[in-house]
Amino acid sequence: MKKTALALGGGAVLGAAHIGVLRALTELHIPVSMVSGTSIGAFIAALYAFGKSWQEIRDIAFDLDWLDLSGLVLSQYGLLSNKKFGGIVTELLGHKNIEDASLPLSIVATDIGTGKKVLFTHGDVALAVMASSCIPGIFRPVEYQGKLLVDGMLMENVPVSPLVESGAQSVICVDLLARHVFTKPDNIIGVLLNAFYSSITNTTAIQIASVDLCISPDLSGFNLINIGQVPDIFDAGYRAALPALKLWAEGENTFPV
Asked: What is the C-alpha to C-alpha distance for residues 68 and 1, in angstroms, rounded to an integer?
């Protein structure tokens, strides 16, 4: 079977669905040759690229207080710092560079000073994950080489292009927001998440149009914040991925799913 590249998109707590996709890939013995991620997808992609099994990633996710990854800071750039997120990556993987991963790994962030995409394929993996998941207005930007970096969702929420540019012959992506239904937010974090993610859905559809398979779980019953949903979101990802990947592996490539 042809090895396949995997792109994992952003979507806050909905990212638990990615782990269900990883379970399906493992059970169907579909090999992954390289992986990319944006925002929470960068976190999951990094763990997977460094050899964590879907079971290990599931256990990490179930124990993780997803939106309590920060401490309040006084900054003109954001309310919170997600340095704790970077600390979690370091705690789980050690002090590693992206090029140390078992699978080639690409992580997308945004230079908020220039409005340009920043692609991490080398360097500190914890810093790259922290930058890619740095939601503007909520988290203080990550300073790196004179740049102020924020969430890669502003540039490419489902990062297919780094895989294509790296020579991937077959690409599977996971779009967490394609079937998402936005609900009335309860707080400022909900307002900002709804604003950012609702603005990128059309752009994402264009960016992923050429993939071999797009898995879009029905996550309409979940919101972007409630961590109590994580086990059910994981199950939803698995239920969507298993039949789609079976068809794809049999050569009946279908888009979208």
From this structure: 41
Q: What is the DSSP letter of 85?
A: H
Does the annotation mark 161 as catalytic? no
Parallel, antiparallel or unpaired: strands 105-111 and 147-151:
antiparallel
Judge residue 236's burial from the number of C-beta atoms within 10 Å of its C-beta, 0-12 exposed, 13-18 middle, 19 or more buried.
buried
Q: What is the pLDDT of residue 77?
A: 43
Q: Would you state the structure tokens that stand for residue 11, as one six-digit string?
A: 């979507």
Q: What is the mean pLDDT of each run of 10 residues along the chain (257 residues)?
A: 86 94 97 96 97 96 67 44 74 95 98 96 96 84 94 94 94 93 77 77 84 96 86 97 95 51
Q: What angle do CA 45, 198, 208 make, to 5 degrees?
A: 50
What's the one-letter identity of residue 135? I
189 Cβ neighbours under 8 A, 6+ residues apart? 67, 138, 225
C-alpha span between 94 and 168 (Å, rounded): 28
Q: pTM for this structure?
A: 0.89
39 labelled catalytic = yes
Do residues 172 and 6 lie in contact, with contact meaning Cβ atoms separated by under 8 Å?
Answer: yes
Q: Give the DSSP letter of residue 250.
A: T
Name residue, tokens 């599977």.
172
Catalytic pick among 36, 39, 161, 216: 39
- CA 235 – CA 45 distance, rounded (Å): 18
Q: How many residues does the chain have?
A: 257
Q: Which of 133, 151, 161, 175 is catalytic?
A: 151
Beta bridge pairs of residue 63: none
C-alpha 158/C-alpha 207 separation (Å) is 8
Predicted local confidence at residue 1, as pLDDT: 55
